[in-house]
Amino acid sequence: MLSMGNSYAGQLKTTRFEEVLHNSIEASLRSNNLVPRPIFSQLYLEAEQQLSSLEAGNRADNEEEEEEEEEEEGSESSSPPVSYQVKPPPEGCCTTDGFCQAGKDLRLVSISNEHIEVPSGFLLVGAKSPNLPDHLLVCAVDKRFLPDDNGRNALLGFSGNCVGCGKKGFCYFTEFSNHINLKLTTQPKKQKHLKYYLVRNAQGALTKGSVICWKGAEFRGRQSSTSTCSSTLFQLPESSGLSGSTSSEPLPPANPSAPAGTQQTAAAVDHIPSTAAFSSAVYNGKESPKQQLMKNNLSALTRPSVLGTLTNSGPPKKRHKGWSPESPSSTETWNLQLNPQASNRIKNDGGSLSSLPHSALVGPASSPMVGSGEPVSVPDNLLKICKAKPVIFKGHGNFPYLCGNINDVIVSPLLYTCYRNSQSLSRAYEQYGASTIQPISEEMQLLLTVYYLVQLAADQVPLIEDLEQIFMRSWRESHLSEIRQYQQAVPQAFPQLPSPITPVTSAQLPWLAGLAASSCNDSVHIIECSYSLAEGLSEMFKLLIEGKLIKTNYVVIICASRNRAIDSCIVITGKYQARVLSESMLSPSDYQKEVNYQLVTGKVETLGSFFSTLCPEGDIDLLLEKFYQENQGHISSSLSASVNKPTAVNGAGTAVCTSYEIERHQIRPFQLAVAQKLLSHICSIADSSTQNLDLGSFEKIDFLICVPPSEVTYQQTLFHLWHSGILLELGLEKEHLTKQRVEQYVMKLDAEAQIKFKIFLQNSMQNPHTLFVLIHDHAHWDLMSAMHSLYPQTELSSGLVDRLLNCREVKEAPNIVTLHVTSFPYALQTQHTHISPYNEIHWPSSYSNGVDLYHENKKYFGLSEFIESTLSGHSIPLLRYDSSFEAMVMALGKRFPRLHSAVIRTFVLIQHYSAAMMAVCGLSQMKNYTSVETLEITQNLINSSRQCPSGHGLMVVLRIPCIPLAAVAYERLYNVRERLALEDNFEIILGNPNSGITIGKHFVEQLKIWQKIEDVDWRPQTYLELEGLPCILIFSGMDPQGESLPRSLRYCDLRLINSSSLVRTSLEQELGLAAYFVSSELHTEKAVVNDVLESDPEKLSSTDNEDEEIVTEGSTSEKRSPMKRERSRSHDSASSSLSSKASTFCTESSPPQVLSNSTEETTNNYERQKQKVDKGAQTTVSKHLPPVTEQLDMKQNIKSTQVSITSSSSPPFSSSSSSSAPAHNSFILQTSQCSMTKASKQPPIVFLPKLVYDIITSTDSSGLPKSSSLLPYHSVMWASSFRPLMSKMMTCTEQSLYYRQWTVPKPIHMDYNNRSEGRMDTFHPRRLLLSGPPQVCKKNKIGKTGAYLQFLSILSRMLIRLTEVDVYDEEEININIKEEESDQYYHQPGDMWPDLESFKKMPFDYTIHDPKYEDASLICSKLQTTNSEDKSKSRRQEDMYTCRQTTRMRLSKYAAYNTYHHCEQCHQYMGFNPRYQIYESTLHAFAFSYSMLGEEIQLHFIIPKSKEHHFVFSQPGRQLESMRLPLVTDKSEDYIKSPTFTPTTGRHEHGLFNLYHAMDGASHLHVLVVKEYEMAIYKKYWPNHIMLVLPSIFNSAGVGAAHFLIKELSYHNLELERNRQEELGIKPQDIWPFIVISDDSCVMWNAVEVDCSGDRKSDYTWTERNVSLKQILQHIEATPNVTHYALIGMRKWSSKTNSAEIKEPFSCCHVHDFIMLNVDLTQNVQYNQNRFTCDDVDFNLRVHSAGLLICRFNHFNVMKKQIAVGGQRSFHIKSKVSDTPVSISPAQYICAPDSKHTFLAAPAQLLLEKYLQYHSHRFFPLSLKNYSHPVLSVDCYLNLGPQIAVCYVSSRPHSLNISSSGLTFSGLLLYLCDSFVVASFLKKFHFLKGATLCVICQDRNSLRQTVVRLELEDEWQFRLRDEFQTANAKEDRPLFFLTGRHI
């Protein structure tokens, strides 16, 4: 790094006075100004020089360089730093880092909440210690010694106090740094170590504020305003003329940007927002956002990059440093935002210099690298001579001082920054070890720059982005072998550039550059200098003054010598390019202020007077007045005739335009798809393990929609909300909705927003069970950081989004979801975004692989379709530019160099519109003062309403971003319209974002008639309501704010959009105004093509493409499309010839007539006139057009009609104007003639500035429009210039990922600080982003608003659905099979409990009534045989296998829940509450012996610590002894006595094990019974539940095994408890013997309440209500004599329950699903541990046959939830041999013994049960549908299928069996017979002849033994082939069975 070159290097000045005196003398010698500033005002008021761009750039690169530079520039010596010897501290003092020498803590983190006394005039600042990089030390410093926000006005020296020990009066920073223990190795400097202002936040804590802006270096942190927003940040008060001298007090330090500390890698941060480029092209002189971006941006984060004007001609402040133009040179222009108004005046109006104190204009700028040559003097009157301010881009090496008239030049560091960035390797390459690859050399960079400039056209402006990509490509190509494997090839986006193999030397460089420039006709001029750039600059200025660079746009100055690096700079001398570049530096607010200043001060009057001299007949106003006076009476009468014509026709009922249709609100397929995607993302958030969104806890939806502060957008959103019906659907409002109520749900982001938002937050806190959706519509608007917007001068609304939507309450509220909705999401897709890429939803594509996905009858025309229309082969181009307009603007720009081009463009366009209106009204001489394009727009507008019987017309949008200019345009056009008496023909509307719509009463009445509105006070409030109104809408405001435009929009005139549109968002936002949905069915209409003269070069040479025209103008204008297309693709204009042709027909008509009633384009008339002359009027309309003409192409009919009308000699305004076309003809043609109809069926035509047009229509080799590769947004910047190119093939998701990788927010962006939280994942979990195409809502409502409203609707429905479950809703089966005594009732309907004695008399109902057993075998008793045949008839085979019926039920507060339910009440119960530690569990073994299994059973309990009180443990060893049981006599309201066991498999997530609410909070013991292999997963999901783990041998067992072990364990535990409590004196029979066995799908319980208060005893009414399980269990437990019942159950719920079913409150029948089991009474009755199905039926039969009581409470019922996973579904039968899933039919489940049948991997018992269920008729053929002769089943119930009945008998002695006398059985089933089955028992039963027998045993040996023991061969015949086995391998222990026939 070179030191500053000046003659005073190394000397130290002792006083500031001497310093200033010296500088003043030096400045007076150098300056051209008359009087140097007084020394004392210089001392106290002079603006301190700024840091050069180079220095700022280096600072951004790394901290060390920054320190060096600051040392060089800010210290008393500019020599290289020397090591600094720290004075040893006094003995005994504290030397700890972070503490002062008195031992007091100074660290910000330690004392941020302490009260600190700050003397008046002092500020608290944060100092950085090199030893504590992560801490700030708090100091109090006199603010006079600190710089203001401009980086100036700091007094030299220091004055500070120690806030720790309170010591005051430190006058030297060296002394102070020793006191606070900075321990520096270099000389202490306040600039280097005092880094941040400290401020108190809302909580009163001291926090880091904005960066202290020493000498402008930190402007990159503060410069925000220029970069993005319309507001200006950090401005000094505008009332003062002084830019820097108004105050020496720093602004409130709220700026969050950290200048030097926040940089990332050099490559990542230094890089300039590339768009802002070389000129990022301020197109057409308007400010490019990019540039601005750049400019600020650069400055803001990396290095001063502003293309500032060098206006400081004042003396340098410190020593001889001169004022280098590098830093944008001037106080004002360096950072335009400092005092934009003043600086703008300086830049654009030399005459305004006198109005400002000289000090405001001058301010030295210094550079750390300057040449040693003489300073370069800028010539006087440079701007006057050259008509433009040259823009100097500093390149490589040293740059000389500039002095003299430096107001007339602009110096920018952008190119330097670009060079620097391109020499730093990308991180992407470094990670591959590519650091050995050399960067592109400086010589090569400069040579490539020359190549680039040479190939630019005369009307093109260089773009930094292009240059960066050229450097990137060149570097990659030169190192291809090293990097080929690391990254894919970049598309060839730029012209082929030479990439020499051998490096270019500095000696070759000038020669090669000159060679390259030799072919460009002097567009690029090379100046080679031998000593320093000063020579070249001086020569360049000389050539400029002499006029020798008139043809030159770029001057490249090179100073190359062999012994040192090259110096270079590039000067933009082209008037057009220089203007574009200079204007590109204004921020939107500065741009408006500059324009306003020129308007207010009358600078534009010269332009007006110039226009008046153009017209040969005098001033236009005089012509207008003369026209008005001459034609006043005539026009008013003719006008009334033509305008009122629609009313007359309508009144007669003959012709009414039917095209004005109000589309009803309907959901489009696109919207539904987007809403469902949004819902899917919400569900994904809820399903994630992070538990950031608990959807199950919400009962309803509420929402707030935030919109920009545009009144039209606000009203438009209210309109959509009102008509969507969403408020009623969500239940937020009642039927009678008022507008005031709707307004509560939409918030305009203006000054009043905070009140409404506070209410929203309060509601969200007060309603934790409501999910609030915060919808941020038009989300790319105002992304400014709230910290920046706290400064004065900023707009009230700026930063509101950050303040409100990013506030802590929103971020932390668990019930607020934020949805950002935008068409331009790029600014929300940076490296620091809050939105996860997984939470982005993109608008779906309508086509995929050629398939129409959504069957949408509308085709969207967006940016790509507009661009496509400009390509050859398409019909009329939708994008155009106006060559004659651009030419006039360029000419005037040279004539008036001091006027902003926005002013010039606006005045030219107003002139064009005025002249066009006059020409259309008959002042034909005015045709020469407008352009063909403007004439076309105006003519079609004026004539549009006359083509429709109802007066519908076209809308023309005239976009004028600058509000003052829009007001001027409105006033002028309004005046011209009045003078031409067109006030009733079309309206002119000034669209201001801050106000509503104002239109004339006449047009309001028209709209009310069209829209059938009867409200007297109605006024249109949205642009959508202007549909059909002929009007010019002057659309103002720097950015559109979401306003939708109606379908009648025909022309979108964007010729005045400001150059800030060169940021992708701004550009696409402007073009989005014209985006449109058109009917995709249009192309079905065939066009009828007229004869076209081959000799006419302006007509279509071929009309083959007419059939594919979707965009049709409806007149012959389309026929001109190839010519239009060619013109719009070339740089030449066809306007001259067209204008002359326009004159032909203008002069033919006598004034005052409107050019042909129906003409749509001026040239069309000419074509028709010429055609008529040439062809003898062959195209006149026939008198009677046949009806078929309605189907003809509209162009044909209109054209004919128009020609006929044109030929009429009567003035078109007269009442006879339609005489040549009969009235009924016009009626026939009306659908074709209505301009609005045609406009609504085709996209608008868009007129663009030429520069923007070129950017939009140019594409790279992949077809990607250049606009897509621009910087995406003002307040972001590229992370690196080493980024890959975007590709046309990128999807929205890929684009998002691209921006997330390659863009970073600037400090002014609200996401800037999102990285500083220290977390890797900075995404907010409840934030989503919806992006969709712009302007899609229109009247068709196919847009984002409809989509997110639909999302709210389906989200609400889903929340309701989450509170609902599908429960089985089936009628009981077999209810027609009743016992004979069924009409006898044993209890009264209102009895609460069964009477034991009465109950014992009740017969047992063998029949199964549970609908889940509809396909099970009927159980017959003798009593049922008589009518059992009816059953077979009533049961249809197809019904048995259909899906079971369910009903959706709302969950009550007493429901059981699965693992997805989380609420505050049951968090502790579930064990998930983070406030509680993870529940620890202990594993306990519990063993007991069971003789039937022949071995000891070892079970394991997993017992959470919180549940150990339910168990008894041995004291010494903590061994589990038993589970505590209560006493029968215990009574407690909050306690359930019966332990609940729930066997479960495969349902760890979905099983309903959360009984907290079901038990109503009562204490209960709940045990989950799980298989061993599922233990871990169940424990994970249910950490606070007790688990009973079955032995591993039961891993493949069915539910029977679980029931068996539950029962046996419970009995064993009962015995243990009896023994334990007997020692305590309690009788064994007093121990509670019941347990509850519940299915894992029981969700809710109901109780029937019976009212028997009727007159008769038999009368009763009943109601059913949901009750808690606690209430039911406590009721059953309180049953009198409850211990006498063995099984107690309840009904299964059904909506079809009738009174008869509950008339008897208790039944003795089968119980299922939820039972209370008396383990004491059932000690000798076991579940069959082998069973998979029907084990409860089997057990019920065993219990009944043992003489025990089974009671079902009919007044209680249980609802069972349909769960699609787990349970029996978890058993899959598959082949044991092959892993490939093959469907295996039940017939294959058995095979012959010893066969080669494929073995199956399934338990033998399961195969047996499934086989018998489906194929038992093979064993029992006689039993099929033979219900009178059932199969006798001994000691077991097996399901033989629904077509076979069984009769159950028990072989146990004393068992209860049905009387079998008189019954003849068709079969006998013996299943695993035990010793109780003997031969004599079987011989009691009678069988049919041919009846079949099936004996099932564990092995073949047992089979034979059983046959012998039971003497079966006496009555049954067996054959060898009748032996079978289940299809199991031997190791799986198959079951064997033998069949035989009864003899």
**Strand tally:** 55
Major pleated sheet? 12 strands, mixed
Shape: elongated
Measured by DSSP, the beta-strand proportion falls in 15-25%
* Count of helix runs: 61
- End-to-end separation in angstroms reads 117 Å
Give the assembly state of these chains. single chain
Mean pLDDT: 76
Q: pLDDT under 50 segments (min length 5)?
A: 1-15, 32-83, 216-372, 487-500, 636-654, 790-794, 1082-1232, 1336-1340, 1425-1441
- SS class: alpha/beta
Instruction: Provide the gyration radius in Å.
Output: 46 Å
Helix percent reads 25-40%
Compose a concise summary of this entry.
With 1943 residues, the chain is of the alpha/beta class.
Describe this structure in words.
The protein is α/β, with parallel strands linked by helices and 1943 residues long. The chain is built from 61 helices and 55 strands. The strands form twelve sheets. Strands 35, 36, 39, 40, 41, 42, 43, 44, 45, 46, 47 and 48 form a twelve-stranded mixed sheet that branches. Helix 35 crosses helix 36 (901-920), helix 36 (901-920) packs parallel to helix 38 (963-979) and helix 42 packs across helix 43. The longest helix is centred in the N-terminal third of the chain and has 33 residues, at 620-652. The N terminus is likely disordered.
